[in-house]
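Rather than argue in generalities, we reproduce a single protein record, letters for residues, whole numbers for local backbone shapes, just as it appears below:
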Amino acid sequence: MMAKMSAAKNLVRLLVLVQVAAGLLAGPGGVAALSMDYYSMSCPFAEMMVRSVVYDALTKDPTLAGSLLRLHFHDCFVQGCDASVLIDSTDGNTAEKDAPANKSLRGFEVIDRIKEVLESQCPGVVSCADILTLAARDAVLLAWGPYYGVPLGRRDGTRSLDSDTFTALPPPFFNTTSLINLFGSHGFTVQDLVALSGGHTLGIAHCANFKARLTETDTLDATLGSSLSATCTSNGDAGTAPFDRTSTRFDTVYYRELQMRRGLLSSDQTLFESPETKGIVNMFAMNQAYFFYAFQQGMLKMGQLDLKAGNQGEIRHTCRVINS
């Protein structure tokens, strides 16, 4: 067992080295306050410590890869990438994580563990916002997805309200026009939208989010429809189904499922049904390298949404609680 784990770790290290050597670190210019070597003096092994904890978590539960990626997305689309999604509710405030759209979020304990490790080595240095960004990147990498360099230096926000999520996060029934408008409001292109939607190659969804899809018989594979219907009938809204048939591996199966009308959410399948996005879906389905490149670019953009840098925000001592 130990030999197998050692071999797996060596494989991960080799994968990182190969992808770095292939030049996949390049990305669009970031906010001036961020830099690739932000912690080089203050906490030089920060990225290594993050990846180690994520590796251990995914070894025990591979489904957490999708959860960690989703945490980052749900953080950045609400008031920017400031770790506000991690803050616990209090008697006087219902925080983002307890909003209806975030009730099924997972992976908080992984972020807590990363923060504990970093605080033991570099107290008060690494922000929870940077931890979320790195954890999402490493979750993708360890699920056999692309590696991309992450500029660092984000600061943590001090505001977390459930109401901020109501119009910020795309609901599962959005059509392509609504998705393009929402993503476009954050500066994303149509290709960015389709590439970032490919994050659904990891993870699961609950019946509460896809039961309406069962009525879309013109665009839903009959066999999948029967399976989903049985799941929801047996388990109610708490029932779950994977986004695609390789839901713990980062690949292009998600797009091939859309081509077969096996998209789990309405907001997934609409990408293949709409002329604005169908060609991009087809391109990603047949060209994994191009999808990986586009996903990297989209993630780099998303990781720099509405940042709190410099004197804004704080470095939380505990990711769940604003500093007193």
The radius of gyration is 19 Å. The first strand starts at residue 204 and ends at 206. The first helix runs from residue 2 to 21. The CA atoms of residues 201 and 251 lie 6 Å apart.
